[in-house]
Amino acid sequence: MDTAKASPTSSLPVFANFDAAHLVIGAGVAIFHLTTARVVVCYHGKDGYWFLPKGRRDAGEDSVAGAEREGFEESGYRNRLLPLPLRHRQPQAHHPGSPASPMVVEPVWTQMMPVKPTIQYLLSWYIAETLPPDLEASLSAKTKQENGAYQYPPPFPKELTLVERADLELSQPEPMKHENTGVDEEEALYESYLLPIDIAQTKLQGTIMADVVRLGWEAICSRREMERKTNVG
Fold first, then answer.
1. Which of 14-23, 52-61, 133-142, 168-177 comes out lowest in average pLDDT?
2. Are 49 and 89 in contact (CB under 8 A)?
């Protein structure tokens, strides 16, 4: 599949104003299993379409945390956002004397969609990874202690390379999938699968979500190559 030809283009900038009563903010996530080059894709068991997990952030919740939580609730896979060498327009934090890292956690796409004639939906798409076995076990134990409350994962360690990250899965190469993580009747209809990158793009073809997968995997491969050159040097 020639994903370059299928890639969408950004819309022209617009002026728009929404007060809190007329704006819904959400986040979605492409969750990659790095060692097997697969990505989590959901399927609507009733309506018969494929999608990446997404949803509204909770009141007071950070959008990054909301992306991880929604990814878990709709797919059953715990995940954490992955710092990657992405092209973006945000300024770097000011740290005198310290070089800025090229690895950032930023949306690869942002969509604006009307929910109702007077309500706007702002949806940002992020890139994440499944969790290593030890962290998965720790969060699962905390969930039981907190009567099933969702546990936010710690961020990806700054000094951890992707090769070192892969070594953390030697004891359990398949990520854990939790069942019945949906929070309502609609999410109970969702099924989720870890699919190879090219198959996932085909399932999502014609949507922004296919390009989220493409951009995410390209950035992961770029990070691996950057780390390889650093280690060789």
1. 168-177
2. no
Q: Each residue of 172-189: pLDDT tens digit? A: 889 999 999 999 999 999
Number of helices (H), then strands (E), belonging to the chain: the values are 6, 8
Mean pLDDT (whole number) for 176-205: 96
**Position 73 pLDDT exceeds 50:** yes
Taking phi first (over 0 means left), then psi (-120 to 50 degrees means alpha), and beta for anything else, what does residue 207 get? beta
Contact 85, 226 (CB under 8 A): yes
- 147 conformational bin, left if phi > 0, alpha if psi -120 to 50, beta if neither: left
CA distance 231 to 22: 50
Contacts of 50 (CB under 8 A, 6+ apart): 41, 42, 43, 44, 203, 204
Instruction: At 31, list the tokens.
Output: 């969750």
Q: Which residues of 30-49 are buried (b: 16+ CB within 10 A; e: fewer)?
A: bbbbbbeebbbbbeeeeeee
